[in-house]
Amino acid sequence: MASFYTNGLFIFIYITTRYFLFPHLLKMFNAEQMMLQYIDVLFNTPFISYKTLKECILFTQFKNNGSNLNQMPLYVSLFVNIPEQLHFYMFALIDMLTLLYFLKLDIPHCVSTSLKTKFWIYLFNPLIFLNLIMRTQFVFTQFFIIMALYYCQNYKLNKYHVYKASISIAIATYLDIYNIGLALICLNFFKKFNQRKQSTICFITALTLLYFISYRINSNFIDNVILSCVLFKEQYPNIGLWWYFFTEMFQEYRNFFKFVFNGYSYIFVIPVFLRFKHYPLQGSVILFTWITMFKPYPTVGELGFILTAFVSWFDMNIIENKLIMGLLVMHSLVLLPVFYHLWITVGSGNSNFFYAMTLVYVIGLALVLLGMIKSLLYNEYISINCDDKNHEEDKSDKKLNLVCV
Amino acid sequence: MLVLEAFIKCIITYTLLLPFTSADVSTASFEEKLNLKLLPKDYVLFSFNFKLKSDNIISSSNALFEFKRHNGFSRSIEPLLTKNNVKNLYIKFTKGHWDSQKWGKLPNNGWSSGGSGVEIWAMMEASNKDEVIKNWNILMSEVSGLFCSSVNFINSEKITFINDIQSYYDVDLLDHIPITNEDNELFFLRGSLANEAVCTENLSPFLRILPTNGKTGLSSLINGNRLFDSYWNSMSIDINTVCTDESNCYLDTEIDINFVVNIPQALARKERPTPKPVPAEELQCDPSKKLTDWECFPLLSEKTYSFLLSDIFGTYINDSNRFNKEQVSSISITGIDDEHWSTGIKVIPRGVEDKEEIERLGLLGTSNHVYELKEHQKTNYDIYIGTTDNTKVALDESEYPPIYVTRSLTGDSQDKGVMRVAFTNPSQQREITIRYFETLPWFIRLYVSSLKINVKPYKNLNIPKFSGDAKDVILKTDVKPSIIRSAPLHMQHTLRIPKNSVVMMTFDFEKPLLNYEEYPPDSNHGFEVEAAVVVVIDESYEEKALNGEFKGHLKDHNYIMRTSTLLLTLATPDFSMPYNVITITSTLMAFSFGLIFNLLTKRVVTFEDSKKLVTERPLVRLLKGLKLKK
Where does the signal peptide begin and end (chain B) (predicted)? Predict the structure, then answer.
């Protein structure tokens, strides 16, 4: 009984500090002006920023087309009906639901992360929290991805879960077209062909329906959101590799390289689908990380999701070079805003400094990705080759010395 | 053969007779005027005004050949308009800053000057917007050739379509515009090039349009040296198509050339073309400050002086207007009182060329300071202006501008900033309604939703302050967002400025990167952003005009002004290393692809098994086999 009350009190404190106290404090100290503008470049792109959302909400009155209205019509119409003071609480609600689904997700048996640890991992991830404070669209995308994973995993509990999963994936794809690969990976969850078929059909119908409704609301979204994102029309510096490449690329080759880069970010969809047939949960994170590295508008919010998933769904014991990995990511996260500030505001550095940091960031992500894959492959070996009886002994005796050939 | 001969004869008689038959219907005329307005602090505003009317531009359909008679009207204008279906065309070249705090209202209520740079307005007939833009582009390249200006850069990225025509154009004149095709609509467009350098090569086309060619009449005074060495100058040409009935249309053209000159400086320029110190004997010292044999604080300006126009322009007015016998050229001098100022005209008859002889010629003065150039023979004229107290120039209450507008960019970084516009209504009696017309290039990502508005009192007076919601100041908003690389952001706010108050609007904006070839050669200089247009509306007049009860001219009721242009700096990439960026990025991508591809395609085995596996690889076996053979 006592623990029930402590838990209740604990959750109460969590909710008040995360969703009320901290945001209020930040507002009081004028955080937007003082701090958040420096890390703006890390978290916001025109396609997910709250500023664009507000602009889109305003332009629902005018019915004029403009290329800077880069938000999906349904996402905008959700917020049109909510008074502006309550917008943050909408994001807070979604964040809370994300946490709920994240906790409910079954972790693979090889990873021994307790519920409490998962809770802390999510709670104390500053990237996820800042993402929430910045009110970016990724709060929603992340929620739909995690919800989709949860329903995929528990599709056996209820026959509607297959549909729920496909619809969530469809919404995540709707919000960010680069998530489309996840739909394929999630098919690995379903063991029977019939369910796969159901899921595929449901996904395609949901996505078509979403696009159709959006088209009826505002037909310009194809140009302003999808094509603008895929073809990198809004040239703002971000932490990805595209912005500098296409600023400097020669005119004649620009379209060709846009095609190549897009193909590049989807290149591992089928290999991951085939290779990690039995690990769809981890497989989807691996694919998500790869796409984040090479999509036109990545943000650090995505890194927050990746790191949370990495720590809680992968066996950290197998992964080597954790220190280097962590230092690289930290190093880039600290220096990215600093060098951006030096280039843009102070003028004492130039764009190459910031560009160099984006390279370091991508290398850091690549190492994380490498760790993920390695951990998954070794796990696979252990679960196939070591029987349950031997397994216990093996673990206690010595560490398996595994290599890839 | 006979028939042919008769035909040719017919044609010849027709050709010969034609000029005589149509001579009496000529509507062509030419008027010229010069107004000198003395402004406080020794400034003077020269306003040249030329009015031209063309002949009937609709050729009668029964004519065998099309004979176009121009009667002094420039031949280049008419094809420019008719070919592209342009009905009205207003071109304005402006340079410098009009100090409305000191000098009061803009000349002609602001209608004859534009924002700094080139500004073009056009009323065009077309079936749809695409056709308009197509015609506009052709028009611009022709105008750019005609006026030697780079207006061909005003493409669809810069033009705006104007909605509330009644604020910028006399609505009743719309009825007089001929429309060739009933299905077509009229579009009113505006485009401008900010801070385009205006110079002599733009002036000479203006003078060439005049029938006097800048050689005789008042236009003989205008020369590039004088015009562009002024504090503020503007040249504008307004071409309107006006039809009295279906077969009678003419082009009504008005050319205004205005500039502000500081008299002592202009006179000093004549005396000492190269800057040299004033000789000691001419130096006037300020007695209120320290004055010894060695120290002298010069008086800022002399209290008494007199000058002739020829001192300022370097030439006399050569002859009068010979094209219009009824409307003689006239020169008027305003803004002065009779007590302290005197004016006069000097008529220099033909043949008198000796300087001393000219100096000895007498002056003729009139009480109303209006002079007409009447002599119908080759005669030179000169105007004299003298004063006993140059401080006795004061602006009328009605000459103070109804509004002051300042616009600026703030923010310290190159990726975002704030645009701030402040409208001041200095009047203590009445509130004013204005239209704030803004066009911003697409590379300013302005967030209209971030608009913050507040109202502050202008001066601390005893009249009640504005109380109420600042948002109520905005009566109407019209926004057309920008489209990347194809359309500018256009917004128009109708505001009501309360009396004695300052309304401040701020907008947040972000600035993107451009592709490397889109940056100008001096990319760190920044981009010029064109001036915003502000019209002070006479509401009762506008209502009447919309209802068709037309009274008076729009230009007498609405006051139009432009803000200053802005300089926008964008973040620049390092232009020197495209190859580095391309190769390093590609290397990194290939590197991460390789790492992951490597892992995905390989088997996981224990270290002990791996040795065996490695030795069984086909390549290793092949090598082994080769070794054994040796």
Answer: 1-23
For A92-151, the pLDDT digits (tens) are: 999 999 999 998 887 766 666 778 888 888 888 999 999 999 999 999 999 999 999 999
Q: With contact defined as beta carbons under 8 Å apart, do B97 and B565 qualify? A: no
| Structure tokens that stand for B321 in this block | 């207007």
B508–A403: do the CB atoms touch at under 8 Å? no
Separation CA B397–CA B401 (nearest Å): 9
Question: Does the beta carbon of A263 lie under 8 angstroms from any beta carbon of chain B?
Answer: no
Query: Which tokens sit at A359?
Result: 């390279």
Chain centroid offset of residue B189 CA:
14
The 3-class secondary structure across B591-621, one letter per residue, is HHHHHHHHHHHCCEEEHHHHHHHHHCCHHHH
Residue type, B544: K
Q: How confident is the model at residue B378 (pLDDT cuts 50, 70, 90)?
A: confident
| Interface residue of B572, B586, B591, B600 to substitute, partner A, most A CBs within 10 Å | B600
Please answer yes or no on whether A244 and B602 come within 8 Å at the CB atom.
no
Q: What is the pLDDT of residues B415-436, one digit of tens each?
A: 889 999 999 999 888 889 999 9
What is the distance between the alpha carbons of residues A150 and A174, in angstroms, rounded to a whole number? 19
pTM, to two decimals: 0.87
In a domain, A393, yes or no: no
Which of A44, A58, A228, A247 best tests the B interface by mutation, with the highest count of B CBs <10 A? A247
CA distances from B151 to A370, B87, B443 (A): 57, 19, 20
- Report which residue type is found at A33: Q
Q: Letter for the amino acid at A72?
A: M
- The domain spans of chain B are 402-568, 577-629
Whether A352 shows a pLDDT value over 80: the answer reads yes
Size of interface A-B (CB pairs under 8 A): 163
In a domain? residue A41 = yes
Does residue B329 have a pLDDT over 80? Answer: yes
Closest CA to B151 of B110, B190, B105, B96: B190
Name the residue among B592, B600, B606 with its Cβ closest to that of A400. Answer: B606
A84 vs B8, residue with greater confidence: A84
Residue of B287, B288, B267 lying closest to B278 (CA atoms)? B267
Q: Are A287 and A345 in contact (CB under 8 A)?
A: no
CATH class belonging to B402-568: mainly beta
**A147 found inside a domain:** yes
Beta strand B533-537 with B559-562: parallel, antiparallel or unpaired?
A: antiparallel
Residue B139: exposed, middle, or buried by beta-carbon count in 10 A (0-12, 13-18, 19+)?
buried
**Residue A395 pLDDT more than 70?**
no
Which positions in chain A touch B482 (Cβ < 8 Å)?
A: 66-68
- The 10s digit of each residue's pLDDT in A247-299 is 999 999 999 999 999 999 999 999 999 999 989 999 999 999 999 999 999 99
Q: Which ranges of A16-160 does DSSP label H, i.e. alpha helix?
A: 22-28, 31-34, 40-43, 50-62, 73-80, 87-104, 115-123, 126-134, 138-153
Number of domains forming the structure of chain A: 1
> How distant, in Å, are the alpha carbons of A233, B286, B366 from that of B172?
44, 57, 39
Residue A30 Cα, gap to closest chain B Cα (Å): 16
Arithmetic mean of pLDDT over chain A: 89
Cβ atoms of residues B258 and B45 within 8 Å: yes
Structure tokens, A86: 């309550």
Name the one residue in this structure whose structure tokens are 């919404």. A171
- Domain range for residue A105? 8-381
* Structure tokens given for A181: 């690969």
Interchain proximity A244–B606, CB inside 8 Å? no
Q: Is residue A143 part of a domain?
A: yes
Question: pLDDT tens digit string along B261-290?
Answer: 998 888 888 888 888 877 777 777 877 888
Q: How far apart are CA B106 and CA B98, in angstroms?
A: 7
CA distance A89 to chain B (A): 20
